[in-house]
Amino acid sequence: MTFRPEPSPRHLDVISGALTDTGLRRRVNEDAHLASFPVFLVADGMGGHEAGDLASAAVIDAFRGFIGRGDVAPEEVADAVHAAHRAVGVIARGTTRGAGSTLTGVVAVQQNGEHRWLVVNIGDSRVYRLLSERLEQLTVDHSIAQEMVDAGRLSRDQMSTFEGRNVITRAVGGDHSPADFWLLPVVTGERLLICSDGLSGEITDEAIRAGLLTGASPAQTTGSLVAQALHHGGRDNVTAIVVDVVGGGIHPRLEDTTGGLVTSEPATGTIEVETVPSRRRRHD
Length: 284
Hints:
284 residues, alpha+beta, 7-stranded antiparallel sheet
């Protein structure tokens, strides 16, 4: 019997930039982020100065062990989500107001000898992808506002001014708050934006698209996007990560870049992953 080793994934050439700002109305920055290959995440803490910043930091800490690795398995990401839930739960039990956090971002994982993005989301922070000048929101908000949009009771344009826009339906550390996962190809030439709602709640999708299309570096682009959010009110902490795939991904043919909702995080901490048509789409 001849043994043929599985080919190694192509080397990914990825550059990124990240920026966070307290905003104009908050005293404490409860956002935390991680932008170091293969993991690019934003966590938006809740609980006020007593615990929000601790919660978001704990979420990010659960993923630091992935830094520098090129062999992360999807199941390891699910395990890290569970670890984040446990860590935030410990923090919440030590406070009077409780604590929680959103979690959103991408991790470059290996599956069947190929690099793929595993998009993960709990809450209303977001991941966007710009490809061939087309902007797509990859995540689906876990929020009252999104549920109203899905039900046809609110338009997407009204989300940023809706009185209950900050009420989320899932949070790290909360009960009945599984993560959603999407498994997508890594595409050469794509640009990803991972951001807290302090950005997406202040500027429109079209403004985000225009900001990502400028041709500036990831670091310059994050600076420009955060500056726009502050100019439009800066009502919340603002965090943005921009990731450019320079090489090593698949050819950017749109028919090859579709993906879908893989599964919500099950109680076991493992996930069955394959690229499948999404059963849940964001409604505009």
